[in-house]
Amino acid sequence: MNSFENLLLLCGTHHPPVDQHDSAYTVEELEEWKEGQIAQSGTHLSAADSAEVFDHIRRSLAQLTQVDVVVELRVGRMAGGGMVLGALKSLRRVTISEDGGATYVAVQVDNRGFVPVTVNAAGLEFSYQRGPEHDTFHLFDTWVDTKRGRISRGAGRLSHHDDMTWICQSDSVYAGLRELLVRYGSLPCYVRPFAELATLDPVRSDEWLPLTDLAPYLLPDDHPDAPFT
C-alpha cells in the first residue's frame, strides 16, 4: 500500500479533492499523472549535488537544535516617561544640566536561534587585564521585556528570536566599582557583558571593552567623587 508504485505526490491544493472524490479519478488517470511526474523529474542527482543537498539539510537541522544567544552591553536613560536604550556612545554624556532622570547600564540578551532558553541572570564582568579570566562581576536583578513593556525580576524565559534587557542603575554599578577601588587600590581596565543560562554555560561577549567607554554613563564628569580620568 505504501510502496513507491502507489505513491503520487500532489500539492496542497489538489491533494484533498483527489482523496475526497476518489470515484472521480480513475486508477489509469492517476497512473498517467505519475508517469508525467517521473518524465519531468529529469536525471538523478550527482554525488556532488547529493552531498550539497545533505549538507544543507544538516545545517538547517542544526539551526533548529543549537542554542544561539548573544549578549551586548548597552546604556539607558529615563526620558519622556519611558526608558531609552542604546549602544555605548549613542546616548549623550551625563551632565549636571540633565533633568535628573535615572541612567542605567544594561545587558541585552538576544536569542537568535530556535531553541527557547531560560536566562537566570545577567551582568558585567570586570578585569584588570585583558584575558580569558575575569576578576569580578556585577549581577543585575531586573530585566525589561521591551516588546511588551514589562519589567520583571528573577529568571526569564526567552522564546526563539526574542530578546530581553537586564538593567541596573548606573549609581549601583559605580558603587561596585568604588568597592573594587578600595579593595585593590585601582579600578579594573576592562568590562564585558555576560548572561547565565539555566543548564548551559554562561554566554559572554567575545570582546573586552575599556572601562573608560562606560565611565561617562556612571557619573557626571564634574561629580566630586568621580574617579575616572
Short summary of the structure?
It is elongated and about 90 Å long. 25% of the residues lie in helices and 32% in strands.
Write up this protein.
This protein is an alpha+beta fold and 229 residues long. It is built from 5 helices and 12 strands. It has helices at residues 15-20, 27-40, 47-65, 170-184, 211-214; strands spanning 69-79, 82-87, 103-111, 117-127, 136-140, 142-145, 150-153, 156-158, 162-169, 190-197, 203-204, 209-210. A 6-stranded antiparallel β-sheet has the order 2-1-3-9-6-7. Strands 4, 5, 8, 10, 11 and 12 form a 6-stranded antiparallel β-sheet that branches. Strand 10 (190-197) and strand 11 (203-204) form a beta hairpin. Mean pLDDT is 77; it is low at 93-99.
Distance between the termini: 80 Å
Tell me the overall shape: elongated
The proportion of residues forming helix, as a percent range, comes to 25-40%
H/E element sequence: HHHEEEEEEEEEHEEEH
Please tally the helical runs, counting DSSP H or I stretches of 4 or more residues: 5
> Quick one: biggest sheet?
6 strands, antiparallel
How many strand elements? 12
Counting helices, strands and paired strands, the structural category is alpha+beta
Radius of gyration, in Å, reads 28 Å
Chart the SSEs and their pairings.
Blueprint: H1 15-20, H2 27-40, H3 47-65, E1 69-79, E2 82-87, E3 103-111, E4 117-127, E5 136-140, E6 142-145, E7 150-153, E8 156-158, E9 162-169, H4 170-184, E10 190-197, E11 203-204, E12 209-210, H5 211-214
Antiparallel strand pairs: 1-2, 1-3, 3-9, 4-5, 4-8, 4-10, 6-7, 6-9, 10-11, 10-12
